Amino acid sequence: MSPRSRAPRAAPACAPWVRTRLRTAPGAACAFALLVMVTAFLAAAFPRAVDSYENQGLRHDLAAAAPTRSVLELTGPQPGLELPDAARESAVRENTLESAQHRLLAGLPDPVRADASQSAYGVRTSDSITASEPWFPRPYGLDPQLTYATQSALPEHSILRTGKWPAVHGTVSLTTREVEAAVTEQTAKALRIKPGATVSVPTHGGEALTVRITGIVTPREPEASYWSAEPLLRTPSLVLQHKPKPSQDDPRYYWAAALLLPPDAAPALLSTIGQPEVYWRIAPDGSRLTALDAPRLRTAVASMEGGPELLKMRAVAGGEVALTTDLDEILTAYDGMRGAIEPVVTVAAVGIGAVAAVVLLMTGGLMAGRRHTELALLRARGGSLPGIGGRLLAETAAGAVPAGALGLLLALLAVGEARPWPAVAGAAAVVVLVCVALPLRTTLLHRTPQLHGGRDDLVAARPSRRRTVAELTLLVLAVGAVAALRRRGTDSDGGTDLLISAAPVLVGLIAAVVLVRLYPLPLRLALRSVARLRGAVGFLSLARAGRSSAAGTLPLLALLVALTTAAFGGSVLAGVADARDDAAVRAIGADARISGQADSIPLPDRVVRAVRETDGVRDTARVQIEYGVALPMPDAGFVDSKGATLIGVDPVTYARLSRSTGIGAFPADRLKATGPATPKGTMPSKDQVLPVLVSPSVAERLGDRPRELESMAGDFKVRVAGTVARTPAVSDTSFIIVNSASLTHRQTTALLLTGDRLDAEALRTAARAPGGSFTVQMRAEERATYVDTPMQTGAERIYTAAIAAGAGYALLAVLLSLLQTAPERMTLLARLRTMGLTSRQGGRLLAFEAMPQALLAAGGGLLVGWAAIALLAPGIDLMRLALAAGPGSGRPATAPLRTDPWSLALPALGVVVLAAGVAGVQAWWAGRRGSITELRAGDSR
Q: End-to-end CA distance of the chain, in Å?
């Protein structure tokens, strides 16, 4: 054998499969990776957004709650009288209480955390003590009642304004008869206290304890827990005198205030008659709490109130201490809002998730369809299904995994303060779906070598039995989900019900199935009609539309679910906005309201004229309001001592206001009295009967015959001329509306304004009067108070994103469905152009071909979106999402879904416009490339 024949052969060059495929179609690979990245970002951002607003909502509720409710206050009685005086004194000294405070804070159960800087301890008199010094102010002739407290860390939480800090001189004991104290500026101003003043405190021994005021301080953070857990330490108040028996005398008030002693002066308080007690106030720190901590926090609070943790506290602070707090009520309210919002948000998540999954499957179908011939050739040459599937999996993963990781990273950066694992799971689910869809679809299509088959026309297709059974199963699920949602609503004791949350998706799915079955019928009729016409464009376009694949359910499903989700999201936002507008207009009665305290102070004419001349005021309604007007005795039944509210109005302006606000509209002539108007200051004729509009409860009380009424506005006879359920002037459900011209004592106690762009500052300036200032309430400001929790704003942002994502995926579904058949259309145009088809006719041909399915999707989306909202509205209440506090007096009882025309029409219109635009672009591009480029020899398209 020659040396040449023994030389080893070089291995043939073989390019890696993945690199070759990615280089072959880099544009498609990049577009596919971008779609995966966006979908992974949405899948990862949603759970993080929910976690974020739930965490922020819990922290907000704890921070916004009044310290009197959120503080954990541990109180105990004074040391027992059976103990020696030295032991009693030692038990209330600062070092003893401070040591107990440190051990209490260190022993708090997880996840309860304390804000040590705002926590305090000390001794206080649980019963206020009367101060008899003559220099104290007595507005109603009653002596002030003072509380004495040895609050810890006073210098750290206040600024000394006058005098010096209170201090102890020597060792204070039970027998000490003079101590020093400080008061806040507000207390000093209200009670006329000056440095050097003394207050005598009675003791059990008979000798008075003298408390000398040495300084006046200003709180550094007056709204923080240190000062606001017991507001009396900071701000004095006028307290209504308690009477053991009801009396007709005018109410009387007395001043209540607090004096702040140094901590080591506590032993002196043990001798007073004020029933001193020890206390530890623990301010909670919610800055690191998460929504997952809420159940454990509730359990820990319950244990501290009456469980094992309370026993541990008693071992530190004394066997008789008790803990009081309203923190459990705050957590209950938080859980209520969270439970009301979570199912509504889940509906949006399920809808967008379904649309994204369908679009990803469509993308896999598009890629598989483009490579059908290539993969069929590989299969015919002996390629195994696992081998082909593995190559496709590697090819898909090469772009999907980095894109999914990038989407996850963007979600982690965009939404902070949330758990990472739900986001990782969401992004991983998207990547797994993408990587599995293409190989699985391909292996299913190429299980056996395929020859050229018959046409898969949508018009000629006949549904199989399996498809019919599957469609009937989906129909049953959809009907069950809608029925359950209408009956039970979104609230569920066992948590969120995914079947109920998927109701909009199931409605869209059933609609897609029905439309696909009905679509061939009008198409066949149209083909028969167009076949008789002379032009070829119409017939060819409808014939091409009828030759679309019978698998067109998937694009239609994506479109209908996307449009339904967008419409549902728009209806949620519209329902929330309507509920807030309704609640605000019920609370104010107009765009703005000007009145005095309790609607009892007359508005001067000068103020009324100044308000009318303010820019933006379009109309004013002068109203006279009188509460508690006694109603006539009923013929039978229980006597209601509450009475009704008398509202004197100008019929024309008030009727116009009622119509503009939509509250209790009525014709103005209903209040028109017969005979001449009553001159101001004179009694109306005894024979004159005034027509009145009343609420249903008052109408039942007054009956049909004339009845006499006695009020401060005058005594007159009234007859019910009609009933209205509500009225703008008051939020009460028991009222009487009368023509103010018929009243004896006429005056304006409230002014209701309507207008565009009302200037609140200008109105407040106009409402200032020399004798006092009137309150200006704005509807816009009232409406803004209803959005006061991060959970509300977070849920609204999610629904806004759902609308945008639904519209985007709908347009993407249209684009993918058109791109799937783009090569065939380009080839068709090239062939028809060789037969004399003009460029304009080519554009019309492609547009007419795309229009049937685009109009089907758009019209179906409009119809299905509207039907889904109408079907699901009875089971969805948006009250907690719209109003943080929920329904209340004068507020709407429910907040239902409301169809939003814009969220229905704009995405549907976008589908039609995009379909026409893509057809026009394809026709223009085909004209630029020319027929020779498209009609290559050997091309089988």
A: 53
Radius of gyration of the chain (CA): 39
Burial call 798-817: b when 16+ CB within 10 Å, e when fewer: bbebbbebbbbbbbbbbbbb
Task: Return the ∠ at Cα 494 (arms to 491 and 497), rounded to 5°.
Answer: 60
> Which of 884, 358, 864, 793 has the alpha carbon at shortest distance from 568?
864
Measuring CA to CA, which residue among 935, 915, 916, 940 is closest to residue 833?
Answer: 935
- For the record, the structure tokens of 789 come out as 């929790």
Handedness of CA 17, 23, 28, 32 (dihedral sign): positive
User: What single-letter amino acid sits at 738?
Assistant: V
| CA–CA gap between residue 569 and residue 584 (Å, rounded) | 23
Q: What is the pTM of this model?
A: 0.81
Task: Read off φ and ψ for residue 736, nearest 5 degrees.
Answer: -135, 125
Contact between 787 and 64 (Cβ < 8 Å): no
Q: How far apart are CA 379 and CA 386, in angstroms?
A: 11
Structure tokens at 78: 């004074």
Q: What is the DSSP letter of 83?
A: S
Q: How many Cβ atoms sit within 10 Å of the Cβ of residue 614?
A: 18
DSSP string, 331-361: HHHHHHHHHHHHHHHHHHHHHHHHHHHHHHH
Question: CB neighbours of 588 closer than 8 A, spacing ≥ 6?
Answer: 777, 778, 779, 782
Residues in the chain: 941
Dist CA 638 CA 633 (whole Å): 9
CA-wise closest residue to 698 among 721, 671, 728: 721
Q: How far apart are CA 445 and CA 368, in angstroms?
A: 9
> How far is 117 from 97, CA to CA, in rounded Å?
16
d(CA 49, CA 418): 8
Q: What sign results for the dihedral spanned by CA atoms 804, 810, 812, 814? A: negative
* Cβ atoms 744, 678 nearer than 8 A: yes
Measured between alpha carbons, how far is 325 from 302 in angstroms, rounded to an integer? Answer: 10
| pLDDT digit string, tens, across residues 166-222 | 999 889 999 899 999 999 999 999 999 999 999 999 998 888 999 999 999 999 999
- Whether 178 contacts 265, CB under 8 Å: no
- By the 8 A CB rule, do 797 and 345 touch? no
CB of 422 closer than 8 Å to CB of 48: yes
Can you tell me the distance from the alpha carbon of 255 to that of 258, in angstroms, rounded to the nearest whole number? 10
Report whether the peptide linkage leading into residue 202 is cis, meaning its omega lies within 30 degrees of zero. no
Long-range contacts of 186-194 (CB under 8 A, 24+ apart): 186/234, 186/235, 186/236, 187/234, 187/235, 187/236, 187/257, 187/258, 188/216, 190/137, 190/236, 190/255, 190/257, 191/136, 191/137, 191/144, 191/236, 191/255, 191/257, 192/135, 192/136, 192/137
Report the chain's mean pLDDT, rounded to a whole number: 82
Nearest to 174, CA basis, from 101, 242, 79, 240: 79
- At 13 the pLDDT is 47
Neighbours of 710 (CB within 10 A): 11
Residue type, 679: P
Amino acid found at 658: S
CA distance 833 to 103: 91
Q: Is 254 left (phi over 0), alpha (psi -120 to 50) or beta?
A: beta
CB 807 within 8 A of CB 562: yes
Banded model confidence at residue 709, pLDDT cuts 50, 70, 90:
confident
Model confidence at 18: pLDDT above 70: no
Give one DSSP letter per residue of 529-574, joined into a string: HHTTSS-SHHHHHHHHHHTSBTTTHHHHHHHHHHHHHHHHHHHHHH
